[in-house]
Specification:
This is Methyltransferase domain-containing protein. Pfam families: Methyltransf_25. By secondary structure, the protein is of the alpha+beta class. About 35% of the residues lie in helices and about 20% in strands. It has three domains: about 5-180 and about 250-255, 3-Layer(aba) Sandwich (Rossmann fold), CATH 3.40.50.150; about 280-400, no CATH class; about 400-490. The protein is built from nine helices and 19 strands. Strands 3-2-1-4-5-9-8 form a seven-stranded mixed sheet. Helix 6 runs antiparallel to helix 7 and helix 7 (about 220-240) packs antiparallel against helix 8 (about 390-400). The longest helix has about 90 residues, at about 405-490.
Length: about 500
């Protein structure tokens, strides 16, 4: 593990994501009523710690001084393998997204230290059933491959049966946080291998040589392939061919209860069925300020003058409460593979209401995006379900577009390449202009120097001219006196 990784300000400066806030609130809700003192072991920048200070006596500890500077509670710089606290000093020891980072050689020591200072409870959050290979990056310097976040292991609930000393038993397990982008290891591997790319995380620091990963470039073809694989997984989930990815965080509460035999720990249950209602009242639809991975219910996100309705499944047809006596609202459906909105054609049904037939668009992991003009004033939509697709149809939807669509994709790629070429030319021109500007600045500086020299010479000549004028005046005065004397004595 490279300690420089944890001192990067970029790891700690950004505001907590919606998923991190969700996990923090879930952890907070699990703290038992008889807890007064809390140690946040590996508190980082205080995403969880700072939510607890109003209700509990909280202390934060971490190995990163940069992170601790943002914690709004008493802190101490300490390693989990040597916590500077007395036995059972805290009612509860909390450790959120920490123990998965600890190297194997000190893992058991850190676990024992957490248990040693915990008086009553231990509350742990770890990534749940993470596909570790999905977050591998390659060092650009030494070519070493490593997990971008230094995760050493993946967890299931059963791993906590005997993880902590025998006098701690698991009280509860639950799930929180956003869903994983991929739940299918095969698709995850395909996304990395076929797209010839790796996990996008510029702040990753190589544990072998200390080189920062930095930004990576992806070709348009690689980016499209990744979008197609995401669409394929979503289509399979939407059509019941596989289960949605589970929430990414496992929360485990353990209680000190004396010596006991390890009991089996069941994996937490989580409802995960997609539901598309027959009718949808837009004013009652939940609103979020961020997109959700694999939503199970429709929700809205504002986008300028539009509302974007996120649909967990693509209906066959949508009908509205707007009648043909009014202009048809301009709805558009986003195709996540093509990365463009498709304008929908409105038709009036037998009752005079506007309806739209849904095209075969591809979703992303945040579902289908239907753009609705807010000014249209739509209040209620009727959603007619589509016929389910089998695996072949899902694959065809994600990868085999019509000839026109493929030609359109080819044109887009050609346009992207042309734009990249023109951008390179503009960069070359800008560099040439900059070089010429530097030359002109040097010439200008030289001319200024020469001008200064000329100004100095001019000043010297002015002084000499003044001296000569003075001497001329003196000579004229002398000659005038001599003329006067000659006249006087002649």
């Amino acid at each position: 593990m490279n300690s420089n990784y944890y001192e990067q300000a970029t790891l700690w400066d950004s505001a907590p994501s919606a998923a991190q806030v969700d996990v923090a609130q879930a952890l907070k809700s699990l703290i038992p009523a008889d807890v007064r003192t809390v140690l946040d072991a590996g508190c980082g920048s205080g995403i969880v710690t700072n939510t607890l200070v109003d209700q509990w006596e909280v202390t934060g500890c971490d190995i990163s001084q940069t992170a601790l500077a943002q914690v709004n509670a008493p802190t101490i710089l300490a390693d989990l393998t040597e916590l500077p606290f007395a036995d059972q000093q805290f009612d509860l020891v909390l450790s959120s997204d920490v123990i998965e980072h600890i190297p194997d050689e000190v893992y058991r020591a850190a676990i024992k230290e957490i248990a040693r200072v915990a008086g009553k409870y231990i509350l742990i959050a770890v990534p749940y059933r993470e596909i570790l290979e999905a977050s591998l990056v390659q060092c650009p310097a030494c070519r070493h491959r490593f997990h971008a976040h230094y995760h050493q292991r993946s967890y299931r609930a059963a791993d906590f049966e005997q993880l902590f000393p025998a006098d701690f038993e698991v009280v509860s397990t639950s799930l929180a946080g956003e869903r994983w982008p991929f739940s299918n290891p095969g698709l995850s591997q395909a996304a990395l291998m076929l797209a010839d790319t790796d996990y996008e995380f510029p702040s990753a620091v190589c544990p072998a040589c200390g080189t920062q990963r930095g930004p990576s470039e992806r070709s348009p073809q690689a980016s499209m392939l990744e979008r197609q694989l995401c669409a394929l997984q979503y289509l399979r989930i939407e059509n019941g061919l596989e289960a949605p990815p589970l929430p990414s965080e496992l929360l485990v509460l353990l209680k000190r209860s004396g010596t006991h035999d390890a009991k089996p720990v069941a994996e937490p249950a989580f409802a995960g069925d997609i539901a598309l209602p027959a009718t949808l009242a837009l004013d009652q639809c939940p609103r979020f300020d961020h997109l959700l991975n694999y939503p199970l219910r429709p929700y809205l996100v504002a986008d300028g003058e539009f509302d974007v309705l996120l649909l967990p499944a693509l209906p066959h047809r949508i009908s509205s409460d707007a009648t043909a006596q009014q202009p048809a609202p301009a709805l558009a459906l986003y195709d996540a593979v093509r990365e463009e909105y498709i304008e929908l054609q409105a038709e009036a049904d037998d009752n005079g209401a506007w309806t739209w037939l849904m095209p075969a668009a591809c979703p992303s992991i945040v579902a289908y995006r239907l753009r609705v003009p807010r000014a249209a004033g739509l209040q209620r939509l009727t959603l007619e379900p589509a016929q389910p697709l089998d695996h072949a149809a899902c694959f065809a939807r994600a990868f085999d577009y019509s000839t026109a669509a493929r030609e359109n994709h080819a044109r887009l790629l050609e346009q992207q390449q042309e734009n990249a070429r023109r951008l390179a030319e503009l960069n070359d021109l800008a560099n040439a202009i900059e070089a010429r500007r530097n030359e002109l600045e040097l010439l200008h500086a030289d001319l200024q120097t020469r001008h200064g020299d000329l100004e100095t010479r001019h000043g010297e000549l002015e002084i000499r001219h003044t001296d000569l004028e003075t001497r001329r005046s003196e000579l004229e005065a002398t000659l005038s006196k001599r003329g006067f004397l000659r006249k006087l004595f002649s």
